[in-house]
Amino acid sequence: ATPLAVARGIAAAGGRGIVVSGDTVFEETPDVETVVFDKTGTLTDGEMAVTETAVADDASEAWDADDLLGLAGRVERYSRHPIADAVVAAADLDETPPTASDGTPAADGGQVTASDDAESSRRAGDGVTDVQTHDRGLTATVDGASVVVGHPALAVESGYDLPAAVEETIESARARGTVPVVIGRAGRVLGVVVAGDDPRESWDEVVTAVSADGARQVVVLTGDDERATARFREHPAVDRVFAGVPPAAKAETVDRLRNEGPVAMVGDGSNDAPALATADIGIAMASGTDLATDAADVVIVDRGLAAVPEVFTLAGSTHRRIR
Ligand code: ADP
Ligand code: MG
């Protein structure tokens, strides 16, 4: 192995916004047999927007669409999920709850309690307490009532029954490739807010290039339901789609795929960190200030998906020089 070839490869990559950490990355990358793409925020732009707000029939006397969005937004301010950002924007709320002491909402997986003195008086400002972020949404107490905002399954787990008309809204949202967010309050489902994002430009060319005529298996991994993945499943270069995989299980899925050969995982540095760390080669998409990418071997900075195939071509040419 010539250290000079490796150094040159790393420098060439760096010039293209591909930051490689570790001398062995280029050596291992050409052996990758499976490339796993996270869907939301990676193959799609993650720029979620609310596309529909549907109030449940038996809540419609007391709640209109704006009330529903407002309630969902007050809770979603405590999440950093792209869906949460869309709901908060649609509700016309500031991104940051008035309660956060340092100006940042609670991180996903974090927990906000109202136990702390100075904190809790500020928290009283927005009437939202006991916020718990889950893999699939949030639960909280809002103005004294327990509220759930998230995946229909989270609402069901929290003890809510989904009325038939709500189920229909959920199904039609999914059939369109959008994501239904159920809002329940005090034991009753109030309605559904639907969010959607668009696939990134030229995502299809990227997966085609990465598959290298089938030399590598391409896998799409998502927490969304199967129906939201139709356009990815139908693409000829996509070999498998794993849908309904909660964030905590993504690393396990990557680990299982490793039984078939070396795996590269492409995802975002924060939500997908465990899966990136589990993969043989973790490739994180980063932009601007969002460089929380310790788990990744390769960080793509402000380049977007188009740089992913370049990781493989650069590694290939560098590796040939090493040998
Ligand atoms: P992906 O794998 O597509 O990146 P995630 O694993 O981040 O998706 O989330 C899985 C699903 O959980 C989402 O599609 C959504 O239904 C639900 N979910 C997660 N966080 C939130 C939230 N803050 N608000 C509403 N729904 C959420
Ligand atoms: Mg994600």
From TrEMBL:
Where is this chain primarily localised? membrane
Query: Which UniProt key words apply to this protein?
Result: ATP-binding, Membrane, Metal-binding, Nucleotide-binding, Translocase, Transmembrane, Transmembrane helix
Which locations, inside or outside the cell, does it occupy? Endomembrane system
MF terms from GO for this chain are: ATP binding; metal ion binding
- Which Gene Ontology cellular-component terms appear in the entry? endomembrane system
Task: Report the leader peptide range.
Answer: none
Q: Where is this region: Disordered?
A: 93-130
What family name appears in the similarity comment? Belongs to the cation transport ATPase (P-type) (TC 3.A.3) family. Type IB subfamily.
Q: What is this protein called?
A: Heavy metal translocating P-type ATPase
**Species name:** Salinirubrum litoreum
Ranked from the top, the taxonomy reads: Archaea, Methanobacteriati, Methanobacteriota, Stenosarchaea group, Halobacteria
